[in-house]
Design a protein that fits this description.
Hypothetical protein YhaI fold; DUF1878; YhaI-like_sf; 118 residues; mainly alpha; single chain
């Protein structure tokens, strides 16, 4: 069994909760915890996502069809502790910004299949 060092009661409580909750149902939350994202970093990420989602909705209304630049902006602005793809899939699974995450996932899948064919 893996030994876990727990140095304060908050960490201990989170450790206990993670044992009783199936964290696979909460992949975004799991990423936040595992990557030691602070409250400020979390707030910054959510602010970024709200702005991106607003831009996405505006561009969609204007008829824009390619949102690759938004995905690139997201990946570039994302906290370095987080992997862009894992974050996107985690956000999607937990229901955050569903249209935006669906669009990002479509772009990721298109690019992955494009490179697989080569």
């Amino acid at each position: 069994m893996k030994e876990i060092k727990i140095n304060d009661s908050s960490s201990f409580h989170i450790h206990l909760l993670s044992k009783v909750i199936d964290m696979d149902h909460y992949p975004f939350t799991k990423l936040i915890i595992e990557n030691h994202i602070t409250f400020e970093e979390y707030e910054e990420l959510m602010g970024l996502l709200h702005k991106l989602n607003d831009t996405f909705e505006e561009q969609k209304e204007e008829g824009l069809m390619d949102f690759t630049l938004l995905l690139i902006h997201f990946a570039g602005m994302l906290n370095e502790k987080l992997n862009p793809n894992h974050t996107i899939y985690g956000l999607k699974k937990e229901g955050y910004f569903p249209s935006l995450m669906d669009t990002f996932i479509d772009i990721i899948n298109r690019n992955e299949s494009k490179y697989k064919r080569r």
